[in-house]
């Protein structure tokens, strides 16, 4: 089999798997800071219990995130050594900076959160919670800097086929860094808060852990309300940015085959790159022009404006992008339902709604994953936009069988970790937040 | 430019030294686990001694690898793709090790996860030294800076001897840290182990020295290397002496200093090579031909100068919060 294809399969598998954990860390970290703040202000033991309980879940999540994250840092050298040679002058620095500015902070203070409740003062513990949250977000920030540079590179020049840094701030804060980061932060908050809210709904539904369960549900629901609306706005700005700097990607998202005025936005369809046609398509007329240019009559560049060998795959970006948008719309609906039920004071009694929150647990995670899928697959055939193609990025000395072997091992080990990790999380949830103690080994 | 490249050669050494000292003690405890702990309580003392820290300790490796990627991307690319299978063994071990402690605590299958913990601590502890041995003694490279050997190229006598030496250094971190954090019988056992491992360390050091005479005659002509070598042995001796006198803190400090001696020795032998080419020395990756641009090295230096003092400050603070012996009634 082809080395590049195998390396891509391995990267896709390991990054999709790794990316289950960081978004949950974002949202869980936020909720822990909220509950710790409430505990600090109101001195109510219930908040401390809930926080201890969430910290246990965070610990499991974080361990899996770290374990699978090492893979990612190794992978550029292991499987993508040519990539590392060509863009290492720029791409390496954010990874190192992530360690220095973020990952130390996050993991050292997580140790305090998980094992140090009795070792430090209340204030120091609150700060530790805040530092874990800040650390995880900074970590995301540096990774987003690296990724955004792959999407919209800046601050570099090519010397003998190798990208050399010319301006650090231009490279780091390039055209898409901030919007990609804020879009990601909100996605992470949605993901983690949905998990907490689902757990709260489960307790209330089963009549478990009385006041503890209710407060978990109520406070996470209040936090959740705002997020889908902000995310809608950020997503829109991000889409405009994509159209500006990677128009062929946007054309792939919407399977817009022809450049046109009054460009429609697809709602559903099965695009075929071969036939250059979308089957079973349902679309909203002029909507894409309106969203991109704020004017339905303006022209939007379609795929025909670009040579076909520079097109990304169409099917996967189209599908993943629309699943993301569909789920995003669902979260807005969910948020409205929450507001209505809170207004009517029926948050705890509405059974179908509580079931809906249970079903909702994995949905923001799925939308985050498919969102990234559309961003990354939509960047193809480039590994770094107009600098190095994915087909030229792989290691040249690693034989195919070794990559295949490690793909198999990753699959086995990661599946095992998932099963055991999931069981542990369920066990922690069943045990509940009442008198949740610090973790001990 | 020259100064920057030398600074980064040293800084990457410092990051890997930080990793060796800190993750060294929890890796070492992992390998020594069956020899140190005789019952469940003792096992829990050891695990709780490293629980708040091992994750943060591992960040030193991630930062070191990231810094290597940023400052010497060609070395990172050649080594990580060239040593593929060996590094995959390290990677899978680190993954399983990370979860083993948490899973042992949270599931009923304690025996299984203990075994995973021990084996996944042992493999990296051995392989790090083997990898470094290969980097020092050299591997076959071509003009495109690519590794041309195979998995078995890596298993030559000199790298294997460094693997064992590195393992013993890590074990010394583990045994001295265990003594520092424990009381009673466990503490005694840790001190006894420290004495034994110190002697093994010195024996393996001499073995590596003999092999250096055979494999790299030019390396033994560097006076600086001799100085670092002698200092290392003196520090190991002090580690043993302090274990005997019952000063666990000093014993741990001298073990850490001996690790610093080892890295300094390795650095002085390697300099200015980052990865020696065994087939033709003009193909070696050096700090001159494999480094990133001046601007990147400068930016990275600024990042390190701002970031690392802060990291060291809160690391020190958190270690102080958790200082003292692990007492189980305390944790419960």
Report what the structure shows.
Chain A is mainly alpha-helical. Chain A has helices spanning 3-18, 21-42, 45-78, 81-115, 122-151, 168-172, 177-206, 210-245, 247-254, 287-293, 315-343, 351-360, 363-377, 400-431; strands spanning 156-159, 162-165, 260-261, 265-272, 277-284, 299-300, 382-384, 388-389. In chain A, helix 4 runs antiparallel to helix 5 (122-151). The radius of gyration of chain A is 23 Å and the shape is globular. With 332 residues, chain B is mainly α. Chain B contains twelve helices and two strands. The longest helix of chain B has 35 residues, at 2-36. Chain B is globular, with a radius of gyration of 20 Å. The model of chain B has no long low-confidence stretch (mean pLDDT 94). At the A-B interface, helix 3, helix 4 and helix 14 of A face helix 2, helix 3, helix 4, helix 5 and helix 11 of B.
List the main descriptive attributes of the protein structure presented here.
heterodimer; A: 441 residues; mainly alpha; two-stranded antiparallel ribbon; two-stranded antiparallel sheet; 8 strands; 70% helix; globular; B: 332 residues; 12 helices; 2 strands
């Amino acid at each position: 089999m082809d080395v590049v294809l195998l390396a891509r399969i391995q990267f896709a598998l390991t990054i999709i798997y790794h990316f289950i954990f960081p978004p949950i860390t974002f949202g869980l970290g936020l909720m822990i800071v909220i509950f710790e703040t409430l505990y600090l202000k109101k001195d109510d033991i219930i908040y401390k219990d809930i926080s201890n309980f969430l910290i246990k879940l965070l610990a499991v999540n974080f361990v899996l995130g770290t374990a699978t994250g090492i893979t990612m840092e190794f992978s550029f050298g292991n499987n993508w050594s040519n990539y590392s040679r060509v863009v290492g002058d720029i791409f390496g620095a954010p990874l190192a900076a992530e360690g220095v500015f973020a990952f130390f902070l996050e993991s050292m203070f997580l140790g305090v959160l998980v094992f140090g409740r009795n070792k430090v003062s209340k204030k120091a513990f609150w700060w530790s919670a805040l530092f874990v949250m800040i650390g995880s977000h900074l970590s995301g920030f540096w990774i987003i800097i690296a990724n955004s540079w792959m999407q919209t590179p800046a601050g570099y020049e090519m010397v003998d086929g190798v990208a050399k840094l010319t301006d650090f701030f231009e490279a780091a804060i390039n055209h898409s860094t901030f919007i990609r980061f804020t879009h990601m932060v909100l996605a992470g908050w949605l993901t983690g808060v949905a998990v907490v809210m689902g757990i709260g709904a489960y307790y209330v539904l089963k009549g478990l852990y009385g006041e503890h369960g209710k407060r978990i549900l109520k406070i996470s629901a209040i936090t959740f309300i705002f997020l889908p609306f902000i995310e809608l706005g950020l997503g829109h700005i991000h889409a405009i940015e994509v159209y500006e700097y990677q128009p062929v990607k946007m054309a792939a998202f919407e399977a817009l085959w022809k450049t046109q005025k009054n460009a429609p936005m697809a709602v559903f369809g099965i695009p075929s790159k071969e036939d250059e046609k979308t089957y079973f398509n349902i679309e909203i007329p002029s909507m894409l022009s309106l969203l991109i240019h704020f004017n339905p009559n303006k022209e939007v560049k379609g795929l025909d404006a670009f040579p076909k060998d520079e097109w990304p795959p169409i099917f996967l970006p189209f599908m993943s992008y629309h699943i993301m948008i569909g789920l995003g719309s669902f979260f807005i609906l969910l948020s409205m339902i929450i507001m209505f039920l809170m207004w009517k004071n029926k948050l705890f009694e509405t059974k179908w709604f509580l079931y809906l929150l249970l079903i909702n647990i994995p949905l923001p995670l799925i939308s985050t994953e498919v969102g990234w899928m559309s961003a990354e697959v939509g960047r193809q055939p480039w590994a770094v936009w107009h600098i190095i193609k994915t087909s030229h990025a792989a290691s040249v000395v690693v034989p195919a069988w070794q990559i295949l072997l490690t793909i198999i091992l990753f699959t086995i080990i990661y599946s095992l970790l998932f099963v055991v990790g999931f069981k542990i999380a369920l066990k922690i949830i069943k045990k509940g937040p009442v008198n949740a103690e610090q973790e001990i080994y | 430019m020259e100064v920057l490249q030398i600074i980064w050669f040293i800084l990457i050494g410092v990051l890997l030294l930080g990793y060796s000292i800190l993750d060294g003690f929890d890796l070492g405890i992992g390998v020594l686990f069956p020899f140190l702990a005789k019952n469940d309580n003792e096992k829990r003392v050891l695990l709780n001694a490293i629980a708040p820290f091992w994750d943060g300790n591992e960040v030193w490796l991630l930062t070191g690898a990231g810094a290597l990627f940023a400052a010497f991307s060609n070395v990172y690319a050649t080594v990580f793709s060239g040593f593929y299978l060996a590094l995959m063994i390290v990677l899978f071990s680190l993954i399983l090790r990370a979860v083993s402690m948490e899973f042992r605590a949270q599931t009923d299958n304690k025996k299984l996860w203990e075994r995973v913990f021990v084996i996944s601590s042992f493999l990296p502890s051995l392989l790090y030294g083997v990898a470094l041995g290969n980097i020092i003694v050299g591997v076959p490279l071509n003009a495109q800076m690519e590794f041309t050997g195979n998995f078995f190229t890596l298993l030559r006598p000199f790298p294997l001897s460094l693997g064992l030496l590195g393992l013993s250094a890590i074990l010394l971190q583990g045994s001295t840290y265990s003594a520092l954090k424990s009381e009673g019988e466990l503490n005694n056992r840790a001190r006894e182990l420290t004495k034994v491992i110190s002697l093994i360390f010195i024996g393996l050091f001499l073995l590596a020295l003999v092999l250096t005479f055979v494999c790299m005659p030019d390396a033994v002509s560097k006076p600086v290397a001799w100085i670092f070598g002698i200092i290392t042995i003196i520090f190991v001796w002090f580690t043993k002496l302090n274990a005997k006198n019952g000063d666990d803190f000093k014993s741990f400090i001298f073990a850490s200093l001996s690790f610093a001696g080892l890295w300094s020795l390795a650095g002085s032998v390697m300099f200015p090579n980052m990865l020696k080419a065994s087939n033709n020395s003009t193909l070696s990756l050096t700090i001159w031909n494999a480094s990133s641009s001046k601007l990147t090295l400068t930016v990275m230096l600024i990042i390190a100068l701002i970031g690392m003092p802060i990291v060291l400050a809160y690391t020190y603070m958190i270690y102080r919060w958790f200082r003292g012996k692990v007492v189980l009634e305390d944790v419960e």
